[in-house]
C-alpha cells in the first residue's frame, strides 16, 4: 500500500516535473542569458583554462557552438569545471545545461544515470603511456605484466584496464587517484610505470610532464571510447538543439563552409548550402528547432566547422598534433557522419 | 597560660646568606636540568644527538641552501635534473613560493580586482585587533561592526556584482582567501548553532532532546569528508529540479554543521559546570527561559569553556583544508595544484610548497591557542578549585 | 454580566499561554511538524529527482560485478568480485590503517607526554616543539608532506636504498623479506601459545606469592624467556622450517618479499605523528592531574621512582587519560578517511569509486556514514568497558 502510494506520488511528480522540464532548458537558458557548460578540471585540447583563464578545447568550443545557435553569440557560455565524480550529479540537478567533458558514451549512462548523449564529438580509445627512457625495450602493452599503473578512479578507464590485464593473464598494480592532476603528478614523479587513459588525453598530458620527449604512447588501443556531450533526459527540444548543433558542425565541414568564407557562402547558389545556412525562402528549419534560421551561420562564425575546431584544438594547429584518423568525415574514410539537414 | 621566656629577643635582622654554590649559576642549572642522574645524562646525550642531526640539516635546507629567487624550475633543479644547481644540492625552493604567492593568497581571483580581498583583510585586522586587546574601549560597538557590518561589506566587496564592482564568481576564489572565508563563516555560524544544540540537549522536552542528541552524536561519529561528500554529491538530489546553489556555500553549510556538533558538546560541558543554584536563583527572580539562559547561565558557562571553544575553532580552521578533496582550492589545494605546473616541477617543489602552507596554518592555529591561554588566565575568576 | 463576574473571580490559575507544560507540548509539536515537513520535502524531492532522471535506487547494486581492481587487499578480491566485497575490502583497509595508527600514536604519544614532564630540560623542549608543531597543522597537510615531500622523492626501484635484512626502500614503498613457513612450522605457533599461557600462569602465581609472603619473583624475565625461548626451541626441533622470500629486481618493480606501499606508509605515519601530539597532551594532563602527595607518599613508603610511576601514578592517571584518549582514537579512525586524497583504498575511497561506477550516490554515502558511525560507537563502547575496569581499581 505504502509503496503504491509512493509510486503514485512519484509518478505524479514525474509527470509534473517532466512537463516543466520540457518547457524548461531552452527557456531557462534564454532567460538567464547564457549556457552553463560542464567541463573537465583541465585536460589540454578538450577543456583547459589558458593563461587568461579562458576555457579552450573541443569540449569548450562545442558549448560555444550551442551558445551561438541559441543566442547568435558564442561568448554567452559560462563554464563549470567538474570532477569525474561530480559530473553526472551536476547535470542531473540542473547545475549545468550541457555536460561537455570528454565523457564516454555507454548504455549504462544512457539508461541508469538519466543522461542523453547527443553524439560522438571525438572517437577515442584507451591507450598506455610509458617513460621510454626509464623502460627501454618496452614497446607493447603486452610487455607490461607486473607494472604499476596510474589510473583515475571511477572512470570507464579503470574498468577497461582491469579487463585488459585479466584477459591477457597479466598482473598489475593499480595506483588510483580521484583527480587527474594527482594522477599526472604521481606518474611524473615515477610512482607508477604506466599511465593509462584515453589516447587523446595521453597526448595532452604528455605535454604537461617534466620531460615530454621521454614519454611514448604505446600502439595498443584497448577500448572504444566514444566521447560526446550529454544533456538531461526528458527535454527533447534541448536535446535536439544540442544534437543538431553537432551535426551542423559536421555538415558545414562537408560542404566546405568555414569561419572565413561563411559570409560569401550565404550567397552561394548551391541549394544544399543555401538550405543549411538558412537562406532558402520561407525556411522553417531553424525556427522549428527553436532557434533562429541563421543558426548554422552563427555556429560557424563562432567556432568554425568541425574540422577547424579539431585542428585548432587537438590537431595540427595545436601542440597535441593528433591526426584526424577515424575522426575524419565519412567522405574521407572516417566515422563522422551527419544526417541531412533538410 | 603559657610561660614565655622573653629574656633575649633579637632586634636586628640576620644578614642574608649566599645560596649554596651548588644551586646557582649556569653550572648548577646544567647539573639540575641536564645531567641530574646517569639516566638523565644519557637522555641529554640522545637529545643533543637528535638536535645535532636534525637542526643543521633543517637550517641548511630552509635557509643556507635555499633558492630565494628565480623564474622557473631550472633555479631549483640540479644540473642532472636540467637546472643550474650543483649535483647533490638540496635546498628549499622559495622561488616557487615567491612566484606563486599571489595564487596562494587569492587563487584565480582576477589580478585587477585583488585590491578587494586586500581591503577586506585590512578591515578584518583593523576590527579584530581592538576586539582582542582587552584594554581598548567600546567593545560592543566594535563587536557589532565586526560580526554584522564587516561580513556584509566583505560579501559585497568579494562577490561584487553591485555598486559598479564586477562580479567575481566563487570558482575563481582560492588560496588563503577561501581558507579564511570558510573559517570565519564557519566559526560565526557554528557557535550560535552549537549553543542552541547544547541547550536542546539539556532541554526537558523529550522530543527536542532526542533530536539534538541524535544530530550531535551522528555528526560526531562520522568523518567530515563524508559530510562534505554529502554536501557536494547528495544535496543536489535533495532539492527540487533546477534549484542549485554555489559550491562554496554548500561546503560552508557542511563545515558549519559539522563544527556545530562539536561546539554543542563543548558548550554542554560549560552548562553542566554551572551550579544548580544559579538556575534556581534565576527562576526565583522570575526570569523566563531565554532571559535565564542569556543573562545568567550562558555568560558564565561560555567563559568556563573558552579553551574548548577555541580548540574547536582551531580544529575547524584545520579542517577547512579538506575542501580540497571535493575539488575546491583552499590554501592547501592551491599549493597542491601548482605542483603539477611543469614549469616548476622539481624534487624540492612539493616540500617547499607544503612547508610554506604548513607555516601559514601553524601561524594561525598557534596564534589562536596562545590567545586562548591569555584569555583563560585573564577571565579566571576563581571557578577552579 | 454574570458570566463575566464568574470569570473575574478565578484569576488564580496562570494564563493558559504561560503554562510551561502547555508551552513545552506546543513547542515540541511545532518542532515535529516543521521537521516532518522538511524531511517530507527532501524525500519527495529525492524521489522526484531519482524518478525523473531514471537513476536506479536500492542496494541491489552491491551484488553487481565491480570490474575494477584494488591495490591493497587483505581478503581475496579481483575485478570479478562484487561491489559489496569492494566496500568490505575498503572497510578492512580502514581498520588496518586505523589499528596500526592507534598503536603507534599511543606509543609515541606516551613517550612524548612523559618526555614533556621530564626533569631533563632538553628532552622537555624537544617534546614541546614536536607537540606544538603537529598540533597546529592540518592532518591532510601532514599526509601530503609524507607522500609528496618525503616518499615521492626517494629513488626509483632500480636505485633502491638497501637496508639491513634484505629490505629495500624506494619511491614504490618499503620492501622486506616475507617469511615462508615450511612443514612443521605449526609447532612454533603452538610453542608460542604455550609460552604465553605459561607466562600468564607464572605472573599469577608470582602475584599470589607476593600477596601472601611479600617475596618478589622476576616475572618479566621469566615471561620473556618462556615466550621467546619456547618457540625458538620448537623452531630448532622441527628442523628450521622457516625460509624468507627476499625482494628482487624485475623489469618494473621489485618482486617477491612483502611490499608496504607509499600510500599506506604516508597515511599511517601521518596519522601516527599527528595524533601522537594530541595524545602527548592528554598524557601530560593526566599525570599532572595526579596530586603530588601521591608521589610523595609512595616515596615515603620506600618505593623506587620506577615503581612509583608504575604502581601509583599511572593507574590513577589512566582514569583521567582514558576518556579523552578514546576521542583521539575516534578522531584517528575518522581522519583515516583522508586516505582518499592520496589514493589509499580505504572505505571512503572504495565506496567513492563504487559511487562513481554506479551513480548511486545516496546509497554509497549512506553506507559510509553508517559504517563510520557503528565503528565510532563500537570504539567508545570498548573504551567505556576499559574505563569502567580502571575505575574499579579505586577502593
Automatic annotation (TrEMBL), chain A:
It comes from the Bacteria. Keywords: Signal, Transport. SMART domains: PBPb. Residues 1-23 form the signal peptide. One of its GO terms (biological process) is amino acid transport. Residues 34-265 form the Solute-binding protein family 3/N-terminal domain. Belongs to the bacterial solute-binding protein 3 family. This is Amino acid ABC transporter substrate-binding protein.
Automatic annotation (TrEMBL), chain B:
The chain crosses the membrane at residues 41-63, 115-133, 145-166, 172-200, 221-242, 248-267, 322-339, 351-369. It is found in: Cell inner membrane; Cell membrane. PROSITE patterns: ABC_TM1. Residues 176-367 form the ABC transmembrane type-1 domain. GO terms for biological process: amino acid transport. GO terms for cellular component: ATP-binding cassette (ABC) transporter complex. Pfam families: BPD_transp_1. Keywords: Cell membrane, Membrane, Transmembrane, Transmembrane helix, Transport. Coiled coil: none annotated. The keyword Ligase does not apply. GO terms for molecular function: transmembrane transporter activity. It is a multi-pass membrane protein. The keyword Protein biosynthesis does not apply. Belongs to the binding-protein-dependent transport system permease family. HisMQ subfamily. This is Amino acid ABC transporter permease. It comes from Mesorhizobium waimense.
UniProtKB/TrEMBL annotation, chain C:
GO terms for molecular function: transmembrane transporter activity. Its main location: membrane. GO terms for biological process: amino acid transport. The chain crosses the membrane at residues 25-43, 87-112, 133-156, 184-203, 224-244, 264-283, 365-386. InterPro entries: AA_ABC_transptr_permease_3TM (IPR010065), ArtM/GltK/GlnP/TcyL/YhdX-like (IPR043429), MetI-like (IPR000515), MetI-like_sf (IPR035906). Residues 91-383 form the ABC transmembrane type-1 domain. GO terms for cellular component: ATP-binding cassette (ABC) transporter complex. Keywords: Amino-acid transport, Cell membrane, Membrane, Transmembrane, Transmembrane helix, Transport. SUPFAM superfamilies: MetI-like. It is found in: Cell inner membrane; Cell membrane. The keyword Membrane applies. It is a multi-pass membrane protein. PANTHER family: AMINO-ACID ABC TRANSPORTER PERMEASE PROTEIN YHDX-RELATED, MEMBRANE COMPONENT OF AMINO ACID ABC TRANSPORTER. This is Amino acid ABC transporter permease. It comes from Mesorhizobium waimense. The lineage of its organism: Bacteria, Pseudomonadati, Pseudomonadota, Alphaproteobacteria, Hyphomicrobiales.
Amino acid at each position: 500500500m505504502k509503496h503504491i502510494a509512493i509510486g503514485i506520488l512519484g509518478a505524479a511528480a514525474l509527470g509534473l516535473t517532466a512537463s516543466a522540464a520540457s518547457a524548461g532548458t531552452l527557456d531557462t537558458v534564454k532567460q538567464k542569458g547564457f549556457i552553463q557548460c560542464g567541463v573537465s578540471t583541465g585536460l589540454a585540447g578538450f577543456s583547459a583554462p589558458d593563461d587568461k583563464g579562458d576555457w579552450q578545447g573541443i569540449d569548450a568550443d562545442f558549448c560555444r557552438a550551442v551558445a551561438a545557435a541559441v543566442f547568435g553569440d558564442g561568448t554567452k557560455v559560462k563554464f563549470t569545471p567538474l570532477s569525474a565524480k561530480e559530473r553526472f550529479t551536476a547535470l542531473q540537478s540542473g547545475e549545468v545545461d550541457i555536460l561537455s567533458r570528454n565523457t564516454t558514451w555507454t548504455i549504462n549512462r544512457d539508461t541508469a544515470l538519466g543522461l542523453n548523449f547527443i553524439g560522438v564529438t571525438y572517437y577515442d580509445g584507451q591507450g598506455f603511456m610509458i617513460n621510454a627512457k626509464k623502460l627501454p625495450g618496452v614497446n607493447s602493452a603486452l610487455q607490461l605484466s607486473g607494472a604499476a599503473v596510474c589510473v583515475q578512479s571511477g572512470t570507464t578507464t579503470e574498468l577497461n584496464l582491469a579487463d585488459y590485464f585479466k584477459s591477457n593473464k597479466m598482473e598489475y598494480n593499480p595506483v588510483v587517484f580521484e583527480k587527474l592532476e594527482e594522477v599526472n603528478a604521481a606518474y611524473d614523479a615515477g610512482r607508477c610505470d604506466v599511465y593509462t587513459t584515453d589516447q587523446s588525453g595521453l597526448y595532452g598530458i604528455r605535454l604537461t610532464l617534466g620531460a615530454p620527449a621521454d614519454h611514448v604512447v604505446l600502439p595498443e588501443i584497448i577500448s572504444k571510447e566514444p566521447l560526446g556531450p550529454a544533456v538531461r533526459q526528458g527535454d527533447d527540444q534541448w536535446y535536439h538543439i544540442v544534437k543538431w548543433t553537432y551535426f551542423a558542425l559536421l555538415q558545414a565541414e562537408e560542404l566546405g563552409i568555414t569561419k572565413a568564407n561563411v559570409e560569401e557562402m550565404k550567397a552561394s547558389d548551391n541549394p544544399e548550402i543555401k538550405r543549411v545556412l538558412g537562406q532558402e525562402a520561407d525556411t522553417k528549419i531553424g525556427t522549428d528547432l527553436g532557434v533562429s534560421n541563421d543558426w548554422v551561420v552563427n555556429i560557424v562564425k563562432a567556432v568554425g566547422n568541425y574540422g577547424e575546431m579539431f585542428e585548432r584544438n587537438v590537431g595540427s594547429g595545436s601542440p597535441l598534433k593528433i591526426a584526424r584518423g577515424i575522426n575524419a568525415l565519412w567522405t574521407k574514410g572516417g566515422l563522422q557522419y551527419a544526417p541531412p539537414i533538410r | 597560660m603559657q610561660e614565655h621566656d622573653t629574656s633575649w629577643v633579637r632586634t636586628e635582622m640576620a644578614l642574608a646568606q649566599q645560596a649554596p654554590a651548588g644551586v646557582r649559576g649556569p653550572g648548577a642549572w646544567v647539573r639540575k636540568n641536564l645531567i641530574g642522574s646517569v639516566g638523565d645524562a644519557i637522555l641529554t646525550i640522545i637529545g643533543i644527538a637528535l638536535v645535532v642531526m636534525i637542526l643543521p640539516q633543517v637550517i641548511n635546507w630552509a635557509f643556507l641552501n635555499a633558492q630565494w629567487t628565480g623564474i622557473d624550475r631550472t633555479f631549483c633543479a640540479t644540473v642532472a635534473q636540467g637546472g643550474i644547481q650543483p649535483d647533490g644540492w638540496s635546498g628549499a625552493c622559495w622561488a616557487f613560493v615567491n612566484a606563486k604567492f599571489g595564487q596562494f593568497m587569492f587563487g584565480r581571483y582576477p589580478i585587477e580586482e585583488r585590491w578587494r580581498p586586500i581591503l577586506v583583510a585590512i578591515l578584518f585586522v583593523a576590527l579584530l585587533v581592538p576586539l582582542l586587546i582587552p584594554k581598548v574601549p567600546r567593545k560592543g560597538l566594535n563587536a557589532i561592526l565586526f560580526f554584522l557590518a564587516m561580513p556584509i561589506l566583505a560579501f559585497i566587496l568579494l562577490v561584487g556584482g553591485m555598486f559598479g564592482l564586477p562580479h567575481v564568481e566563487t570558482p575563481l576564489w582560492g588560496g588563503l582567501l577561501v581558507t579564511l572565508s570558510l573559517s570565519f563563516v564557519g566559526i560565526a555560524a557554528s557557535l550560535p548553532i552549537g549553543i542552541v544544540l547544547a541547550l536542546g540537549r539539556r532541554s526537558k522536552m523529550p522530543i527536542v532532546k532526542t533530536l539534538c542528541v541524535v544530530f550531535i552524536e551522528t555528526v560526531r561519529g562520522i568523518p567530515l569528508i563524508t559530510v562534505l561528500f554529502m554536501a557536494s554529491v547528495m544535496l543536489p538530489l535533495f532539492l527540487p529540479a533546477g534549484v542549485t546553489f554555489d559550491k562554496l556555500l554548500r561546503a560552508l553549510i557542511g563545515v558549519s554543521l559539522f563544527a556545530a556538533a562539536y561546539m554543542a558538546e563543548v558548550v554542554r560541558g560549560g552548562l553542566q559546570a554551572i551550579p544548580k543554584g544559579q538556575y534556581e536563583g534565576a527562576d526565583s527572580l522570575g526570569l523566563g527561559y531565554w532571559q535565564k539562559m542569556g543573562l545568567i547561565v550562558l555568560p558564565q558557562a561560555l567563559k568556563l569553556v573558552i579553551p574548548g571553544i577555541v580548540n574547536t575553532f582551531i580544529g575547524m580552521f584545520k579542517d577547512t583544508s579538506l575542501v580540497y578533496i571535493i575539488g575546491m582550492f583552499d590554501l592547501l589545494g592551491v599549493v597542491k595544484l601548482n605542483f603539477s605546473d611543469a614549469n616548476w616541477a622539481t624534487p624540492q617543489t612539493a616540500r617547499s610548497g607544503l612547508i610554506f602552507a604548513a607555516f601559514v596554518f601553524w601561524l594561525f592555529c598557534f596564534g589562536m591557542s596562545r590567545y586562548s591561554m591569555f584569555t583563560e588566565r585573564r577571565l579566571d575568576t576563581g571557578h577552579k578549585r | 454580566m454574570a458570566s463575566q463576574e464568574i470569570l473575574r473571580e478565578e484569576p488564580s490559575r496562570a494564563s493558559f499561554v504561560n503554562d510551561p507544560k502547555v508551552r513545552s507540548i506546543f513547542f515540541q509539536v511545532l518542532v515535529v511538524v516543521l521537521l516532518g515537513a522538511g524531511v517530507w520535502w527532501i524525500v519527495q524531492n529525492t524521489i522526484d529527482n531519482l524518478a525523473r532522471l531514471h537513476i536506479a535506487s536500492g542496494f541491489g547494486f552491491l551484488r553487481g560485478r565491480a570490474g575494477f581492481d584494488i591495490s591493497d587487499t587483505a581478503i581475496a578480491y579481483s575485478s570479478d568480485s562484487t561491489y559489496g566485497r569492494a566496500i568490505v575490502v575498503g572497510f578492512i583497509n580502514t581498520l588496518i590503517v586505523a589499528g596500526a595508527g592507534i598503536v603507534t600514536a599511543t606509543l609515541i604519544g606516551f613517550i612524548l607526554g612523559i618526555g614533556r614532564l621530564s626533569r631533563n630540560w632538553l628532552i622537555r623542549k624537544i617534546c614541546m616543539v614536536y607537540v606544538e608543531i603537529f598540533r597546529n597543522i592540518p592532518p591532510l597537510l601532514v599526509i601530503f608532506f609524507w607522500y609528496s615531500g618525503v616518499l615521492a622523492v626517494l629513488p626509483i626501484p632500480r636505485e633502491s636504498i638497501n637496508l639491513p635484512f634484505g629490505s629495500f626502500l624506494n619511491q614504490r614503498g618499503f620492501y622486506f623479506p616475507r617469511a615462508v613457513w615450511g612443514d612443521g612450522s605449526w609447532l612454533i605457533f603452538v610453542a608460542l601459545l604455550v609460552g604465553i599461557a605459561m607466562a600468564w600462569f607464572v605472573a599469577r602465581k608470582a602475584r599470589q606469592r607476593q600477596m601472601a609472603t611479600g617475596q618478589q619473583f622476576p616475572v618479566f624475565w621469566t615471561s620473556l624467556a618462556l615466550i621467546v625461548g619456547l618457540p625458538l626451541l620448537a623452531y630448532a626441533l622441527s628442523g628450521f622450517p622457516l625460509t624468507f622470500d627476499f625482494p628482487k629486481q624485475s623489469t618494473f618493480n621489485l618482486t617477491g618479499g612483502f611490499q608496504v606501499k607509499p600510500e599506506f606508509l604516508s597515511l599511517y605515519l601521518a596519522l601516527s605523528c599527528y595524533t601522537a601530539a594530541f595524545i602527548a597532551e592528554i598524557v601530560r594532563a593526566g599525570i599532572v592531574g595526579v596530586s603530588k602527595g601521591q608521589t610523595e607518599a609512595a616515596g615515603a613508603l620506600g618505593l623506587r621512582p620506577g615503581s612509583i610511576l608504575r604502581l601509583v601514578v599511572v593507574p590513577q592517571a589512566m582514569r583521567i587519560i582514558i576518556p579523552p584518549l578514546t576521542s583521539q582514537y575516534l578522531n584517528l579512525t575518522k581522519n583515516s578517511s583522508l586516505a582518499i586524497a592520496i589514493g589509499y583504498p580505504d572505505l571512503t575511497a572504495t565506496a567513492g569509486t563504487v559511487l562513481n561506477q554506479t551513480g548511486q550516490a545516496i546509497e554509497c554515502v549512506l553506507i559510509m556514514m553508517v559504517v563510520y558511525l557503528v565503528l565510532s560507537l563500537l570504539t567508545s563502547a570498548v573504551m567505556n568497558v576499559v574505563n569502567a575496569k580502571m575505575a574499579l581499581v579505586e577502593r
